[in-house]
Design brief:
Blueprint: H1 4-14, H2 19-26, H3 30-37, H4 45-53, H5 64-68
Protein backbone atom coordinates (compact mmCIF):
# COMPACT_ATOMS: atom_id res chain seq x y z
CA UNK A 1 0.00 0.00 0.00
CA UNK A 2 1.29 3.44 -0.90
CA UNK A 3 2.13 5.73 2.00
CA UNK A 4 0.16 8.95 2.41
CA UNK A 5 3.33 10.99 1.94
CA UNK A 6 4.14 9.34 -1.40
CA UNK A 7 0.57 9.60 -2.64
CA UNK A 8 0.24 13.32 -1.92
CA UNK A 9 3.67 14.21 -3.30
CA UNK A 10 3.19 12.23 -6.52
CA UNK A 11 -0.30 13.58 -7.13
CA UNK A 12 0.76 17.17 -6.38
CA UNK A 13 3.58 16.88 -8.88
CA UNK A 14 1.23 15.37 -11.48
CA UNK A 15 -0.86 18.53 -11.37
CA UNK A 16 2.34 20.60 -11.56
CA UNK A 17 1.91 22.58 -8.33
CA UNK A 18 4.50 23.67 -5.81
CA UNK A 19 3.86 22.82 -2.17
CA UNK A 20 2.90 26.45 -1.57
CA UNK A 21 0.46 26.58 -4.51
CA UNK A 22 -1.06 23.28 -3.50
CA UNK A 23 -1.50 24.32 0.14
CA UNK A 24 -3.21 27.52 -0.98
CA UNK A 25 -5.65 25.67 -3.23
CA UNK A 26 -6.37 23.04 -0.57
CA UNK A 27 -6.99 25.73 2.05
CA UNK A 28 -4.29 24.59 4.45
CA UNK A 29 -1.02 26.02 5.70
CA UNK A 30 2.17 25.22 3.80
CA UNK A 31 3.44 23.42 6.91
CA UNK A 32 0.56 20.93 6.63
CA UNK A 33 1.59 19.89 3.12
CA UNK A 34 5.24 19.71 4.15
CA UNK A 35 4.46 17.53 7.18
CA UNK A 36 2.34 15.17 5.09
CA UNK A 37 5.00 14.82 2.40
CA UNK A 38 7.71 14.30 5.02
CA UNK A 39 5.74 11.40 6.49
CA UNK A 40 5.11 13.00 9.88
CA UNK A 41 2.70 11.03 12.05
CA UNK A 42 1.22 13.74 14.27
CA UNK A 43 -1.19 15.16 11.70
CA UNK A 44 -4.63 16.67 12.09
CA UNK A 45 -7.06 14.36 10.29
CA UNK A 46 -9.28 17.28 9.27
CA UNK A 47 -6.33 19.01 7.58
CA UNK A 48 -5.22 15.79 5.91
CA UNK A 49 -8.73 15.35 4.52
CA UNK A 50 -8.69 18.89 3.10
CA UNK A 51 -5.55 17.90 1.19
CA UNK A 52 -6.96 14.54 0.09
CA UNK A 53 -10.21 16.13 -1.09
CA UNK A 54 -8.14 17.76 -3.83
CA UNK A 55 -7.83 14.25 -5.31
CA UNK A 56 -11.33 13.00 -4.45
CA UNK A 57 -10.21 10.99 -1.42
CA UNK A 58 -10.59 11.11 2.35
CA UNK A 59 -9.36 9.27 5.42
CA UNK A 60 -11.85 7.59 7.72
CA UNK A 61 -11.62 5.22 10.67
CA UNK A 62 -11.75 1.57 9.65
CA UNK A 63 -12.67 -1.40 11.78
CA UNK A 64 -9.74 -3.84 11.62
CA UNK A 65 -12.17 -6.80 11.67
CA UNK A 66 -13.85 -5.55 8.50
CA UNK A 67 -10.50 -5.53 6.69
CA UNK A 68 -9.86 -9.19 7.43
CA UNK A 69 -13.28 -10.39 6.22
Amino acid sequence: MKQLSEFVKERRKQVNLTQEEFADRAGVALTVVRKIEQGKTNLNMEKVNLVLMMFGHELAPVNIKELSE
